[in-house]
Amino acid sequence: MEWLDVSTENCPVQSTLDLVGEKWTLLILRDAFIRVRRFDDFRRHLGLSDAVLADRLRKLVAAGILTTVPYQQAGSRTRHEYRLTSKGRDLWPILMALRQWGETYAADPEGPVLDVRHTECGAPVRVVVECDGPHGALAPTEVTAAPGPGARPVRSLLTE
Length: 160
Description:
Blueprint: H1 12-20, H2 23-33, H3 39-46, H4 50-62, E1 66-71, E2 79-84, H5 86-89, H6 92-105
Antiparallel strand pairs: 1-2
């Protein structure tokens, strides 16, 4: 079976984009990785409406990407912080890859808005696609991709 004969209905890229592929969702996740946790802080930093923010946070919690943790400031009612789950933390390489691409191709001439460095040694952090074997970093021209075990044939609209 060739790639163009494979249905993309169960494609993991498509499934991921269904969950996190909207601009505000990705920006909420960016801020969550930098430890923004409270609704008012997200709203103030991102500048989006209460309704849009509440909707995106609700979807991220429902998807298990964020979880809510109650907190209460003196004299106030109980509220909830939003924290990344392990499922959410696994999105970190995606956000870092987007940041890295943006710094290369859509950069502010004054430099990056966020300087991400390894805490231990201070070196810049980079995203790399690498071989699970002993070969290290790979370029797209060094890999092959073929339909996997979950590949299904395309359903033709002409035969339905």
